[in-house]
Specification:
This protein has three helices and nine strands. With 177 residues, it is of the alpha+beta class. It folds into two domains: 27 residues; 145 residues, Mog1/PsbP, alpha/beta/alpha sandwich (Protein Transport Mog1p, Chain A, 3-Layer(aba) Sandwich). The strands form two sheets. A seven-stranded antiparallel sheet has the order 3-4-5-9-8-7-6. A two-stranded antiparallel sheet has the order 1-2. Strand 4 and strand 5 form a beta hairpin. The longest helix is centred in the N-terminal third of the chain and has 21 residues. It is globular.
Length: 177
């Protein structure tokens, strides 16, 4: 009797796993949304919600801010436009200089790559430890120019979510156009 019940439970588990793996059920982790400001666009995972946190000063203007709804994999996406006469490379180098000279940052890599859509993207991947509370965070920051507008997209969150942050950053990088 117990063997039959166990076999039924295993069969149901295998069936549910098969449906999930086959993609018959979309989850917010596999669904993608697209952001566009009219000049630039990119895809991002469906677990993110738009937050209204405006920044508009003499140097930058926030274009969008997203927060993941997944409490266990908290992530943030910050999108800004630069308002000064600076190239993506100069902006990236300025950020690198600040973080390399900081006792709380570790720059893991800095690259220049062209994504599949032909957009040249300056990238910094780094870890930051905040002095106030010792929290360690993972950051992926993209600098690029479209139609004479320099954009910066930052994907970041707790270091414990580094892999998911990197996955989100890769989705964004691949889709920027």
């Amino acid at each position: 009797m117990k063997t039959t019940k166990s076999l039924k439970m295993i069969s149901i588990g295998v069936l549910i796993f098969g449906v999930l793996v086959s993609g018959c059920i979309n989850s917010p982790l596999t669904e993608k949304k697209t952001f566009s400001d009219g000049l630039m666009s990119f895809d991002y995972p469906g677990v993110f919600n738009t937050e209204n946190q405006e920044i508009n000063n003499s140097k930058i203007q926030r274009v969008a801010y997203f927060v993941s709804s997944d409490l266990f994999n908290k992530q943030y996406i910050n999108v800004v436009k630069n308002k000064t006469a600076i190239s993506p490379t100069e902006l990236r180098d300025e950020t690198l200089s600040i973080n390399r000279n900081s006792s709380t940052s570790e720059v893991l890599s800095s690259t220049t790559e062209t994504n599949p859509n032909g957009i040249v993207v300056e990238t910094i991947r780094m870890t930051i430890v905040y002095k106030e509370n010792g929290e360690k965070t993972s950051h992926n920051v993209f600098y690029f120019e479209i139609n004479d507008t320099v954009y910066v997209i930052g994907v970041y969150g707790p270091y414990s979510n580094k892999q998911q942050i990197t996955t989100t950053a890769n989705i964004i990088f691949q889709s920027i156009k």
